[in-house]
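agent: user wants the full assembly modeled, not chains individually. Plan: 1) parse entity lines 2) check alphabet per entity 3) run joint structure prediction 4) return tokens. Steps 1-2 passed, two entities, 637 residues total. Proceeding.
--- entities ---
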Amino acid sequence: MAFRTIRTQKLKSFFSLIGVLIGVTFLIAVVSIVQGMNRYMVDRFANALIGANTFELRQRPSIMTGEVSDSVWLAWRRRPRISYADADYVRSRIATPATFAKFCEDRVSVHYEGKVAKDIDLVGTEANYFGIRNYEITAGRAFTAQEVQTAQPVLVVGWELAEKLLPNIDAVGKTVQIGGLPYRIIGVVAKQGTLFGLSMDKFAVMPFSAPGRRLICPINILDALIVRTADPTDMERAMGEAEAIMRSRRELKPWQENNFAFQTAEGALGTWEKISRILFLALPGLVAISLVVGGIVIMNIMLMAVSERTHEIGIRKALGARRQDILAQFVVESATLSGAGALLGIGFGLALAFVVKALTPLPAAVAPWSVVVGMVLGIGVGVAAGVYPASRASRLDPIVALRAE
Amino acid sequence: MTDMIRIHDLTREYQMGEERILALQGVTLDIRRNEYVAIMGPSGSGKSTMMNLLGCLDTPTSGEYWLNGQEVSRLSDDELARVRNQEIGFVFQTFNLLPRATALHNVELPLVYAGLRARERRDRAAQALARVGLEHRMDHRPNELSGGQRQRVAIARALVNDPSILLADEPTGNLDSVTSEEIMRVFADLHAAGQTVIMVTHESDIAAQAERVVVLRDGRVESDRLTRGAAA
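--- prediction returned ---
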């Protein structure tokens, strides 16, 4: 019965749905997009830049979250840097099982037969690095611990560097020049894709000991010691150990702050988490406003419906409808109306999320709970908005109602 | 024969602003099972008030109304709704069908409020429509039916719950004379089949087809007599 009434008054019904529709659309779209962002940030950003269960021991944080004041920045820069000796000291003392890699990087140009690839991220590291980064070698091989020990001038290159500098030829075995020194390419890493539109494949990895290491780090100095553990618990434990070891090595007093920093994937997400928390805090307010407006619209539509259908109510009462029958009829009608609005809103919200997915690199992660919440809220608004008009209808005097036209 | 309706000293007052209107001023009336009674009277005689009270749409200011062994004059709204549903079948001058519903659905309506299952509702509504000769018009909406057919749908709806009394309020008021006769025949047939019929009308030739005519004037019973048809 409720559907029939709605069908016969399509346009009016549609307008009365708009409030609920917008509210639910908003809910679904924002939740989907924020969750998509979240997944993107965790999967691609944090894990691509740092990696799961991995932390870096550094002089200062490498990924800035939020604003850093000049004085803090200066203090960070005055800290002692991480030396080879620091790295070896920590590595030899951490009891938690972990994989370690010394790490240095900078931007360089790579030359091959008169061609130049600029802005290549040259990483100096150890053989473990490939495992830590989950790099898959598609051609050739990674370098070995022996090659690191003997400081071989070998390179494992990113997919894009190989494509751009050595198109249509097998990069493995070719010799390229970096800073005037020759390096032999021994492997190519599988395509990593992009992050915020930036290529993750424009890099080259060499042993940290290789000739030309001064290009990226001063001798005996590292950007970071990378530590990868088996799981998050181990990571916490290893980080605690590393902190204690570094503090004792640098003879810090209990009241002194650390003069080194740990960078983790979670840490890199700090700013993003703040943003998404604000969005999730603001969301209920925005949704509530549209739902309240939607509810008021529906209540008015239902009041109109009751006065337009007074005669029908009179007939129904004459035929034996009790108050609760009339009440139920109009509440169900109202709930159906706004439930339909919620359904449309879910559709629009999903569509919006997928449009965002199609037009941006952000994935759309539809949260099933948001669909459920949307539907429940929609129907709930309908019931709440329907109760007053319905109770007015149910209290009509049948004689008066029958006389109405 | 048992009394279907016992009314004793029934009064109904209305408050119209400052003024008190005495619509019924002590009506006493018994109606037996399977009687065919016409209630007549000029406008303002209390006819409509009588009809509303008989139909349990309203409650009296004082007096007693026993319907089928139950005192209905002091019932609550919901109890009255149940009595209307189970005991009374209304037929109105303006048919009062739901315009957007089919004939079948209109006839089903009292059964909806009686709490019957959809399957049984359908069957009984179809039977009731067959009883008034409209089995081929079940899926038509009121605006696709003639006036006489609409009134038959209304009669089918009134009969579907097997009520104690069929209460008709000017049932031929909106019909031409040929159709009126046709509808009056339906009432006569129902009466012949054992149905108690009470008809409110101001047309004496319509009233003459009942077996008993009660005339109201100024809220009192002016006359109560058997017609010639009943005597014969």
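agent: reporting back. The CA atoms of residues 60 and 77 of chain A lie 8 Å apart. The longest strand of chain A covers residues 99-112.
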